[in-house]
Design goal:
The chain has 291 residues and is of the alpha/beta class. It is built from 10 helices and 8 strands. α1 packs across α8 and α2 packs antiparallel against α3. It starts with a helix and ends in a 22-residue tail after the last strand.
């Protein structure tokens, strides 16, 4: 009972401290005003409907993965992390690819962040622990990776995130503080859910599109062209895309990307919560305990 009460109090506290982004606040006000107009002046309902439709079109434009108009969104490292970039990997853990990614990172002295799918964390708990043991960080990438995640209401959003939190906590004893949406797409309802769960949204600065391309050269070029300190890079540690010889494209890319990062005088680091309050990485970093 005490644990349930604590969770309830935490939820109320998180909701009380949540401040919607200006775009979201304006949208809520417009919806309320439109409803009032339609109820008070029934003949004006076409104008109210048009206003709501225009608002939804605007919100759709704000759903670009790297946008911060729907709420806080880490798409670059903070200025305090001078000389660093952040490598991030989505959709794992994968028993064939993730261990080889870890070996390549070790060989170059690089650390990274792995945004895990809950269902895969349940199937490969040892691999989740191995990621942390080698000094990397883990994040939440939903439980089942639904491609229509941005169409969900708050209940389904929270279930996807909470199930993944539980799966990752069962595997390694930590509940991630970082979240990345499938395909990076989300709607205005995600921000309050993340506030309730005490999590931060992460997107990226540049992506290689290795999830759809087999051409390691093109992927590498997308990631390295104009690479600069503060960039967050997105790759995938899965076997979904391989070259003609069956070699996973992400491994070929890392063989060129990691030396390039070092040659530019940059260091690859694991992500931490904004403000540095919680870091979910191995090697002695503070860890959130399961709640």
């Amino acid at each position: 009972m005490a644990m349930g009460k604590g969770r309830h109090e935490f939820t109320l506290s998180a909701l009380a401290s949540w401040r919607p982004a200006p775009v979201v606040s304006a949208s809520l006000c417009l919806h309320a005003a439109s409803a009032g107009l339609a109820l008070g002046h029934p003949a004006a309902w076409p104008y109210a409907l048009a206003a709501v439709a225009a608002n939804h079109a605007l919100l759709t434009g704000c759903m670009v993965p790297t946008s911060s108009l729907l709420g806080p969104n880490m798409n670059r490292l903070p200025p305090s992390r001078a000389g660093a970039v952040a490598l991030t990997f989505d959709d794992g853990p994968d028993p064939e690819v993730t261990p080889r990614v870890l070996d390549l990172l070790d060989a170059q002295g690089a650390t990274a962040t792995f945004f895990l799918i809950g269902e895969r964390a349940l199937r490969h708990p040892r691999l989740v622990r191995e990621i942390l043991r080698r000094g990397h960080a883990v994040g939440n990438h939903t439980h089942s990776h639904p491609l229509h995640f941005a169409c969900f209401g708050p209940g389904r959003i929270r279930r996807e995130i909470r199930q993944a939190q539980d799966a990752i906590a069962d595997a390694c004893g930590q509940r991630p503080g970082l979240f990345r949406a499938p395909l990076g797409l989300r709607n205005p309802l995600l921000d309050p859910v993340l506030a309730i769960e005490d999590m931060s949204l992460v997107s990226w600065t540049r992506r290689g599109y290795d999830g759809v391309s087999r051409d390691a050269g093109r992927i590498l070029a997308r990631l390295t062209h104009g690479l600069a300190a503060g960039d967050i890079l997105l790759l995938h540690d899965t076997a979904g895309r391989a070259d003609e010889s069956g070699y996973p494209a992400v491994l070929r890319v890392l063989q060129g990307l990691l030396p390039h990062i070092r040659a530019r005088g940059l260091t690859s680091i694991a992500l931490s919560r904004p403000g540095g309050s919680i870091a979910l990485a191995g090697g002695g970093h503070p860890a959130r305990q399961p709640g």
